[in-house]
Design brief:
Blueprint (H helix, E strand, L loop, with lengths): L13 H18 L1 E5 H18 L4 H11 L2 H14 L8 E5 L10 E6 L4 H13 L8 H8 L1 H43 L1
């Protein structure tokens, strides 16, 4: 029975599978995205994400541990130097799997697996979406921020009120000069009828 044994063997022996995943992880770290089958992409995600987490702690022990998985000095140095710096504040989910069209030859499900922090196009869209997210009451977070700024706006209006009061008497004087002219016109019309 295979209770609790949920690893996908990918039709390979244990040694072949480990070598293949190590090579794919190295390619992913070097090129930041690779195209493969969906099953391999899912297996690679479970293989590479703990390695990236380990790279956040730059010690000799963690470098040696990561090297046992990847078996490539250049890739390990890139991982600890560049990638660990970019994912330092991300708590997990370092990779993204995007499904593609099926392969022409054998109709296998294909996918693109990439490092999340290296896709500039999607990163800008995600930042824009985060700004537009709404709260439970239906207001957007940006709108909630505006309402939080409302007391500041009221304070500005209070300082602007004396200036408006000074302008108000001048406006009343202009209305007063216009008002008699309209009354005289009405009086003339009334007499003419």
């Amino acid at each position: 029975m295979r209770h609790g044994k949920k690893v996908n063997h990918l039709g390979r022996t244990d040694s072949h599978r480990k070598a293949m995943l190590a090579n794919m992880a190295s390619s992913l770290i070097l090129h930041k995205r690779i195209t493969t089958t969906l099953a391999k992409a899912k297996a690679l995600r479970t293989y590479v994400e703990p390695i990236i987490t380990k790279s956040k702690n730059d010690t000799t022990h963690s470098r040696r541990t990561v090297f046992t998985y990847l078996q490539d000095k250049e890739v390990v140095s890139i991982l600890f130097r560049e990638i660990a710096e970019k994912v330092a504040n991300r708590p997990g989910g370092y990779t993204r799997i995007i499904k593609l069209n099926n392969r022409m030859g054998d109709n296998a499900e294909m996918a693109l697996i990439e490092l999340v922090d290296y896709n500039e196009v999607y990163g800008q869209e995600a930042a824009a979406k985060e700004e537009k997210k709404t709260t439970r009451r239906g207001r957007s977070k940006a709108g909630a921020a505006k309402t939080a700024d409302a007391p500041k706006a009221e304070a500005k209006e209070e300082t602007a009120a004396p200036v408006a009061e000074e302008a108000a008497p001048a406006a009343e004087e202009t209305q007063a000069t216009e008002a008699p002219a309209t009354e005289t016109e009405e009086n003339k019309e009334g007499k003419g009828e």
